[in-house]
Amino acid sequence: MRAAVLVEAGRPLEVRDVVLDPPRAGEVLVRVAAAGVCHTDLHLADGRLGEGRWPVVLGHEGAGTVEALGAGVEGLAPGDRVAFCFVPSCGTCRACAAGRANLCETVLPAAWAGTLLDGTSRLRLAGGAPLMHFNFVSCFAEHCVVPAASAVPLPDALPLWQAALVGCAVVTGVGAVRNAARVAPGETVCVIGCGGVGLQIVAGAGLAGAGRIVAVDPDPAKLALAAARGATDAVPAGPEAVAAVLALVPGGVDHAFEAVGQPATIRQAWDVLRPGATAIVVGIARLGAEVSLPALELLSEKGLRGSYYGSAHPAEEIGALAGLVAAGELPLADVVSHVTDLEGIEDGLARLRAGEGARTVAIMDAAAAGRD
Ligand SMILES: [Zn+2]
Ligand SMILES: [Zn+2]
User: Fold this and answer.
1) Ligand 1 mean position to 46 CA, how many Å?
2) Considering every ligand atom, which ligand is closest to the CA of 108?
3) What is the pTM of this model?
4) Whose atoms come closest to the Cα of 101: which ligand?
5) Omega before 55 cis (within 30°)?
6) In 3D, which of 43, 282, 81 has the Cα closest to residue 164?
7) For 323, how many CA atoms within 13 A lie in the half-sphere containing its CB?
8) What would the pLDDT profile of 314-361 be if each residue is shown by its tens digit?
9) Which ligand has the minimum distance to the alpha carbon of residue 38?
């Protein structure tokens, strides 16, 4: 099959012939229909998440059709349409038992090692050199082998080119609103960064009934998209953004979300909070980045926390959110700014680097994706 391979950080992706071994016990083979190009792929491609993560087939947000099952897989059948979930929680570790399956301790070592759950890879170059998986998914490819728990069945009504976004951008953004911040009707919200994930935070805040949603971004086009998804106010990003938000919501907001992943914007999320409120960081910072806070302000009971992958049981949340999208309550078509193919993923990464466009979706199987 063909896949977009990151040979080494800092080099463009190369579309290569790749060997994909059949699924082993507990795994499924999926024909990829569509994959979203996410900032986390860019971080890894640019080497910001540390060494030793390549050569690898990137891609962790996508959807496709199940083609074959490994031994012992239940609840899935060939032909099933699925979205990928990149934390195939074990259900039994301390985190899973505590209701925090997104932080599953069993899957994390394999995710960092670039293998599937048994510690081995199904991917190699045509010449035999081994390739790493990325977060169990590696969907910048025509096919992928994933743990069964990484394949979440989808409602029939949901086109796969839209479903592709549910397993990362949507669950990360809407989950942060629902499960980390628990935004209540009438509360005020500030969203710093309105890219693929930030726009989902805006939509999630709207669904939660937030009274005022202030969107902050340097790009007027993204602010317009945020307005279309329920933002009540738009503020240009930059050093003046905090003052502008506080002018709109005197005293500070009930919830601030940071979806950029930079120390300066994390600090801004803190600075726009009212006393007693908590800033939720969803953006992924580069390895080694640090944030400084005015320590005295801790007395005002402000808080700062992260939210990873929806802060709930990821597969259950993906299923529930796919239902909301299929029911028309969470429109996704408008956030897909660019549609491309395997060869065009590298340009999608370049657009992310430049902050251009909301989301690139690569179509690997146009008929299955609903884009033929
Ligand atoms: Zn992602
Ligand atoms: Zn677990």
Assistant:
1) 15
2) 2
3) 0.96
4) 2
5) yes
6) 81
7) 6
8) 999 999 999 999 999 999 999 999 999 999 999 999 999 998 988 999
9) 1
